[in-house]
Amino acid sequence: MSSVLSSPSPWPQLPRDYLGGVDAAYPDEDPTNDLLLGMAELDRGRAYLAYAEYRSVAALYDRLVAAREDTDGFVVDGFADAAARISKLRGTSRGAAETLLNDAVALRDRLPEVSECLRDGVIGPWHAQKAVSRTDLLAESSAAPAVDADIRGDPAHQARSVEQSQVPRHADFDKLYPSDRIVFRHDPDAVRERRQQALDDRRMWTHPREDGT
User: Fold this and answer.
1) Which of 7, 46, 123, 144 lies 20 to 30 Å from 178 when distance is taken between CA atoms?
2) Where are the annotated segments for Disordered (predicted)?
């Protein structure tokens, strides 16, 4: 596999429309308001790049994990292989690569409407990650599609947000997309089971010292 670094990056030639009309080489020549609007457009671009990454990673999962499960049954080996490839390519930890794989599959299969919001720049990558983590207990639940639709919210509101480039801030996510309450409304048993499991898993260890404490 040849490295993408062996050829010049095409990104400096990206049309200015994708940067909110700001020339990244000479931003000091643009008005302050244009710079701020450009940053909002960059947020949408960042969201789309995350969406594209998740889609590619999910395809890798299908080839290296799901397909391998059908042929030799070594699911763990396939997942480890996929994580190792991503980790080596990115220069990141194996744990980070595994999280990326899990998030990519969850967004595609469990939260496709949330994934569309990410694609359109309505939410940012951090919002998508939070939605995945808050709905992990629905991985095998029939309530997942309803929760996905509720987290996505009202389509008309989302369209207005995109039109006005008003991507929700970190602090606004729980107000606009209250994932915990939505999950509880659709599958309260799953929430109760997760809570009970957390209580059951609580432990305390003691180690006696030589002085008797």
Assistant:
1) 46
2) 187-213
42/40 Cα distance (integer angstroms): 5
User: DSSP states of 25-43 as a string?
Assistant: T-GGGS-HHHHHHHHHHHH
Alpha carbons 85 and 94: distance in angstroms, whole number: 9
- Contact assessment for residue 105 and residue 55, using Cβ atoms and an 8 Å cutoff: no
**Eight-state DSSP code of residue 62:** I
Q: Please count the helices (runs of H) and the strands (runs of E) in the chain.
A: 11, 0
Structure tokens at 120: 């359109």
What is the pLDDT of the chain when averaged over all its residues?
77
- Which residue has 């029939």 as its token pair? 142
Residue 99: in which H helix or E strand, if any? helix 94-105
24/171 Cα distance (integer angstroms):
29
Pick the closest to residue 147 from 190, 118, 105 (CA basis). 190
Q: Are 38 and 31 in contact (CB under 8 A)?
A: no
According to the model, what pLDDT value does residue 145 have? 73
145 backbone dihedrals φ, ψ, rounded to 5°? -60, -40
Domain ranges of the chain: 14-200
pLDDT tens readout for residues 132-184: 888 877 766 666 677 677 777 744 344 444 444 444 444 444 544 445 555 55
